[in-house]
Design a protein that fits this description.
The chain has 282 residues and is α/β, with parallel strands linked by helices. The protein contains 13 helices and ten strands. The strands form two sheets. It has a six-stranded parallel beta sheet with strand order 7-6-5-8-9-10, sandwiched between helices. Helix 6 crosses helix 11 and helix 9 packs across helix 12.
Amino acid sequence: VQIVHSQSRTTQVLGCLLARFSGVKHISTCHGFFKKRFSRKIFPCWGQKVIAISEQVKEHLMNDFGIEEEKIRVSHNGIDVERYATRNTPHLLRQTGQHATRKRKELGLSDGPAIGIIARLSDVKGHIYLIEAMKIVLNTLPNAQLLIVGEGKMKEELINRVNSLGIQKNIFFIPAVADTRDVLGVMDLFVMPSLKEGLGLALMEAMAQGLAVVGSDVGGIKSLIQDGINGLLVKPADSQDIARAILELLQDTRKRDSLGREAQDFIRKNFSQEKMVTQTEE
């Protein structure tokens, strides 16, 4: 069986051709939202079956590309939850606390609360609304800090917006990292303000590490965050609402810790790597 796990159109077409000429069964995985290009309808190249990483992606495939529901199987992305089980785990916290303190100093952070996002610097990830929300947050918590981890074509635009708001001392741009645990370890709160999102791997990692999370009420994020139970959902493209949620959690340690524990437990039960592998094999 050939499984094509790629958003690349070229890779999908090559997989389709290989299946046609070799007779090997062809399965594709869709882990995001595609543009409604005419070529995708004429030459779909989805294979005998399609794995969608969330119910929202499944609906996208059915509604926008006309794929029959019986051809689609929802199998959520999974992660190695044990790698992230540090926060809210007492014996691991003792081992990692000093490391997190050193990492904060390396990044130039102060003792103030740290909000973070890990995502490519693309307009669809909603960084601009998080930056504008930080301006509001700083009016109440002037020592708050925002870590923007990732790289992409919007970096210069985002830096310019930070400078125009006069909050450059509180915003830290950090290049993409191979292992997200270190940067997650210095955060008090994780925010994913995407305008579209298939599921949200970085969000899953933050939840698995026991961080309280805030996310837009869109796409696969709604599969991860149960509002008020294991995180907070906010309106997409709404800086005011993002700022409200950030302030609510930064000013309520008990609620922040409770949401973090629930988030960690939710990922452990529902989004483990083992579960993903079993569903893919099936």
